[in-house]
Amino acid sequence: MEPIRIVLVDDNEDAIEIIQFFIRNKEGFEIAGICRNGEELIDEIIVKKPDLILADINMPKKNGLEAVKECLSFYPNLKFIFITGYDEFAISAFRMAAVDYIVKPVEKERLYKALEKAVNIIQYEQGGREADVIRKPIKNLVLRDQQCIRYIPLEEIYFIEKSGKKCFVFTAEEVYETAENISKIYEKLDDSFYSAHRSYIINLKKVSHIIPHHETYIAYFHHFDKHASISKLKINEVRDKIASL
C-alpha cells in the first residue's frame, strides 16, 4: 500500500515539530503539506489531495472545524483527526465523523493509535485486503473527567449502571467510572441502547436472554458474566425493541 499522505494544520510551531517528528518515525505515512491556519488548509487540500488531515481547532482566520467542513464539501471521503488543546469540541468532531480526537500535549502512542485507526478505515474504503481491522468509523461514547476524555466504542459497551452519584460503563475489558448523569449519558447513545431501568441502560444487541427475578427482570449478555436489571414496566418495550433489531 502507498504511504498515507497527511496534511498537518496548526498555528503552533512547537506542535508542528513534535507531530512531524512522530510521523517521520512511523512507517507508512508521509507529510504532504503543512499549514498554519484554516484558510491555508483549504488551498492545500485542493492542490495536494491528501488521504488524511491532522487539524488543530483554535486557529486564526478559520478554525479547524469550519475548515474541515469546507474541505469535506468537495472531498467528502477525506479522513481527519483533530489534535487540539481544547476538549469541549469532541462531540462536534465525532458528529462530523472524525477518525479520532486527541487532546494536547500529544503523546506518541496516542497519535500512533489514531493513525492506525485511520489506516484501517482508508484500507477498507479502498477495498484493501481482508484483515482484522476496523471496518468503519467507530461511534464513541465520550466521557469527561478531571484527568482526561475517554472515547468508548459503543459496540463494546454491554450496559451502564447508576450507583449513587456515579455511573459505571461495563465493557468486556474494563469498567469505566464517571460522574456524568445517567440521563446525559443516554442522550449520547444510539438506538442500540435502551433505558430499561432507572439505574440501567442496556445494549439491546448484546442481550442473550432475560429472566424474571422477584419484581423485576434480569438481562444477561452474550459472553459476559455480569447482568443488568429491567423494570417490569419496561419489559414489553425491551422485548419489542430486541425483536425489531
Order of helices and strands: EHEHEHEHEHEEEEEHEEEEEH
Which CATH top level class of the largest domain fits?
Answer: Alpha Beta
Quote the CATH topology of the largest domain. Rossmann fold
Alpha-beta content class: alpha/beta
The profile of the biggest β sheet is: 5 strands, parallel
CATH architecture of the largest domain: 3-Layer(aba) Sandwich
The amount of helix comes to 25-40%
For the secondary structure, the number of strands is: 15
Number of domains: 2
Distance separating the two termini = 37 Å
Mean pLDDT: 89
> What is the CATH homologous superfamily assignment of the largest domain?
Response regulator
> Could you name the ranges where pLDDT drops below 50 across 5 or more consecutive residues?
128-136
Percent of residues in beta strands?
Answer: 25-35%
Q: Helical region count?
A: 7
Q: Tell me, briefly, the overall form.
A: elongated
GO molecular function, one term: phosphorelay response regulator activity
InterPro entries: CheY-like_superfamily (IPR011006), LytR-like (IPR046947), LytTR_DNA-bd_dom (IPR007492), Sig_transdc_resp-reg_receiver (IPR001789)
Keywords: Phosphoprotein
Protein name: Transcriptional regulator
Brief synopsis:
The protein has 245 residues and is α/β, with parallel strands linked by helices. The chain has helices at residues 13-24, 38-48, 64-74, 90-95, 108-125, 182-187, 235-244; strands spanning 4-9, 29-35, 52-55, 79-84, 100-103, 140-144, 149-153, 157-163, 166-171, 175-178, 193-197, 200-203, 207-213, 216-221, 224-231. The protein has seven helices and 15 strands.
